[in-house]
Amino acid sequence: MARRLRPVELDFTASAPVRLAFTATLAAPPRAVHRSLAVETGSTPSWFTAVASAVPRDEGAGRTVRLRVGISFEETVLASEPGALHAYRVDATNAPGVTAMAEEWALSPAGRGTLLRWTVAADGPGPFRLALRLAGPGLGLSFRGAARRLDRRLTPARPPSPGSAR
C-alpha cells in the first residue's frame, strides 16, 4: 500500500539530507534526451531496465512508475524545460523508510551531445539514509547502463569512417 510523502519543491534536490548524483555524456542532443525523459515516458523501461513500467498521468503533469523489485511511485513533475531539465517529486510510494523524495535530470550541451546529471534527493530516518547512501554505487551502475541504452536508442548508427576495417 502506498504512503503519502512530505511534498517538496525543486530546491529539495540541492538541500535534501541525502543527495546522490551521477553523470554521463551522451552523443544524443539535449532536446532528444529531454523528450525521452519528459514526453516519451512509456519508453523508460526500454532503456532504464530497473523500471518495469512508467505511465503518464494528469496529461503529463505526473506519472506512475513501478520498479522491477516491486516498489512503486506516484510522481508529480516539478519542472520541465526542453533540452535543460526534467524534475519530479514522489508523492506516494510503497518503499519503506522514505519520507520525502525528488529526482532531477539536468541536461547541458557537451559538444553535439549532452552531459546528463541525475540527482536523487531523499529524506527519512537514519537507517533509511544510511541504506540509500550504501545503495549509491548500485544506483550509479544502473544509471550508467541506462544512459548507454538511452544513447543507443537516440543516436542512429554511424557509418564507419573512411578507411576503417569492418
Question: Which stretches are low in confidence, meaning pLDDT under 50 for 5 or more residues running?
Answer: none
Total strands: 8
SS element count, helices: 4
Task: Give the termini separation.
Answer: 54 Å
Oligomer: single chain
Task: Categorize the overall geometry.
Answer: globular
Let me know the largest β-sheet: 8 strands, antiparallel
A few lines on this structure:
The protein is of the alpha+beta class and 166 residues long. It is built from four helices and eight strands, in the order E-H-E-H-H-E-E-E-E-E-E-H.
Characterization of the model:
This protein is 28% helix and 39% strand. With 166 residues, the chain is of the alpha+beta class. Strands 1, 2, 3, 4, 5, 6, 7 and 8 form an eight-stranded antiparallel β-sheet that branches. Strand 4 and strand 5 form a beta hairpin. It is built from four helices and eight strands. The model has no long low-confidence stretch (mean pLDDT 94). It is globular, with a radius of gyration of 17 Å.
Quick tags:
166 residues; alpha+beta; eight-stranded antiparallel β-sheet; globular
